[in-house]
Amino acid sequence: MKLRNYQWDIVRHIIDNKRCAVWSSMGSGKTLSTLVAIDTLSMLEDTFPVLVVAPLRVAKTTWPDEVAKWPITQHMTCISICGDNVRRNYALSQNADIYTVNFELLPWLVEHFGESWPFKMVVVDESTKLKSFRPRQGSIRARALAKVAFKYVNRIVLLTGTPAPQGLVDLWAQQWFIDSGSRLGKSYKAFSDRWFHSVQVGAHRAAVQLKPMPHAQKEIEALIKDTTITVDVRDHIAIDEAFVNKIYVDLPVKAMQQYRELEREMFTELQGQEVEVFNPAAKTMKCLQMANGAVYTTEDNTQFIEVHDEKLDVLASVIEEASGNAVLVAYHFKSDLARLRKAFPQGRVLDQDPQTIADWNAGKIPLMFAHPASAGHGLNLAQGGHILAFFSLNWNLEEHLQIIERVGPIRQAQLGSGKVCEVHYIVARNTVDEMILERLSSKKSVQEILTNAMKRRTT
């Protein structure tokens, strides 16, 4: 097989920059490009063994599968260091060129090797997982990587398709692993003081949000441009846009009255049971549950009361109009899933079993329920269907974009299916649903501006 020109751009960028970031859109082949770069480097310098840090599913299956899949990479060996302690130690006892580990096990791995850290090159797949890093606080996993990133690691590659899901503030931690703060500041405070100002967003004095100053974006882009390459596959191959359909539902009168009471008073009564919240964040979650049709009534979120079936009725119509085509349904709360399974017993849940994905792609599952957090990076569901329905929404842009792309336009184009991806949003009118859609849209526009400015087109 032959790499496309933009994939060779990624390969060259990794080879030419010992510490770098690759912002490459979903479906662009950044995993394969990185593997080719690793293989090339192994002929030029002492590269092996390489460690790939990734989300569990990606570390466990995607990277090993990609290595074995392509003739150009099959000569390399790849072993996953996932699972219980016995499996991890056995995996480490085997000789391999590439080892993969999930983020959760990174602290264990660093402690396991200590001063004998063997990995000369580290690839971080989905580097936004590092965004909460601070030298003295923040993510334990990111701090574990920081212990070895400059002391033992000669090369580091940060891969992501969504570098700044929450805006420019996400970039400092990721860039720190490239240059130890030389470009954007030695500390997060130095970074935030230089390019952001605080905006009060709540009654508590600690409830503030960082907003970028007018000069921030251009200056940050200029500083990190030499270590970052951005590739958007849409710039290089013809991709049909997804068909987006917003389907609005109106809550029944009583349900809307209860929704407004909860929104206003942070209290309401459902079927004789009191529902009370004590802060704005909890209120937002309760309102979102009510918009979906079921509200948790216990603190441990094990019991819920059904308020309405409006979204279930609309979803039934979407499934019917699919005319036999498979439908992937995104949900948020466990109560959503329980109601979905009851209303549509023919549906299956996307779980950790690889056979579920195989059955979906083989056309054996007409309806599948997936939480966006479990249907993200490295997962290809396009062969099984091209229709996605959001029964419920959440605020996470990265997860939102990722689940769309599992059956999205790029995947359909790569497959040559000739089908247009359909994305149906089931939205409760005049509720938090509409605010989430608006917020997701505004976050996306920030990211698109950022990545477009960083692009290096093939010449």
Please explain how this structure is put together:
- With 459 residues, this protein is of the alpha/beta class.
- The chain has 2 domains: 5-236, Tandem AAA-ATPase domain (Rossmann fold), CATH 3.40.50.10810; 243-450, Rossmann fold.
- 41% of the residues lie in helices and 19% in strands.
- The strands form 5 sheets. Strands 3-4-2-5-6-1-9 form a 7-stranded parallel beta sheet, with helices on both faces. It has a 6-stranded parallel beta sheet with strand order 10-19-18-15-17-16, sandwiched between helices. A two-stranded antiparallel sheet has the order 7-8.
- The longest helix has 22 residues, at 432-453.
- The protein is globular.
How many structural domains does the protein architecture include?
2
The CATH topology of the largest domain:
Rossmann fold
The pLDDT mean sits at 89
* Lateral arrangement of strands in the main beta sheet: 3-4-2-5-6-1-9
Strand content: 15-25%
- CATH C-level name of the largest domain: Alpha Beta
By helix and strand content, what is the structural category?
alpha/beta
- Rg estimate, integer Å: 23 Å
CATH superfamily of the largest domain: Tandem AAA-ATPase domain
Helix content: 40-55%
* Bulk shape: globular
Q: Number of DSSP strands?
A: 19
Major sheet characteristics: 7 strands, parallel
- Report low-confidence residues grouped into runs of 5 or more: none
Going by CATH, the architecture of the largest domain would be 3-Layer(aba) Sandwich
What is the number of helical segments per DSSP (H or I, 4+ residues)? Answer: 17
Ends: how far apart? 22 Å
